Amino acid sequence: MSTHAIHADPAVGSGATLRGIRDVATLTGRSLRHVLRSPDTIVTTAVMPIAFLLLFTFVLGGAIDVGDAAYVDYLLPGILLITIASGIAYTSYRLFLDLQAGIVERLQAMPIARSAVLWAHVLTSLVANLVSLAVVVLAALAMGFRSGAGIGAWLAVAGILVLVTLALTWVAIIAGLTARSVDGASAFSYPLILLPFVSSAFVPTETMPGPVRWFAEHQPVTAIVDAMRALLAGEPVGGELAVALAWVLGILVVAATIAAAIQRRRRA
What we know:
The protein is mainly α. The protein is built from eleven helices and no strands.
């Protein structure tokens, strides 16, 4: 092999990587412009979680014993997960519409990175959901939420929320790629929205009957919520964080792998 060939290979790989990044950035900008033209989707995503905050804090919270903590402080981590579960439904919906309109096929026929289309939807979901999460946190602060967490703990909570958003967005991508109707493209999110209700998000698992308690204590929402709650309270996290990260990263890897396989099969 010549010296020229040896030095050319890394350049080719680097050039392809840069082109791929530019492709993702261009398509993400396109998707974000669509979201900005209909900001009601972000508002709608935040409305239901805020309604749950109001309902549980001011109507049902007085009947639930969570110890010395204010109930809104106990409640917020679970509400943030519901916010993400609500928001990713729009990702599946938008991807399904792009597929139905033939936009995805036209984009993939162009000289762009194969993964750029899906990653554009993923990054758009991440940005939109972070905005919705910020709105919900501001609403919680107005309702009395307070945290003694330091900057490091807040960054850890933000990191968990980003990973959860990415993981569930890839689940939404699978739904968008496989749905046969508009309703089917978004209906997958309903179980994800309901899952926090059978966890430690709203009440301590100790108050649940045996089989329900076992399920609540061994499903991912409880581990994620407990880890975020401890971080926001400025308490030691213990093993909850490791369990939460194992769940989130596992879902992320599996969902992204399945979505990529489905996309390859569609292109074949």
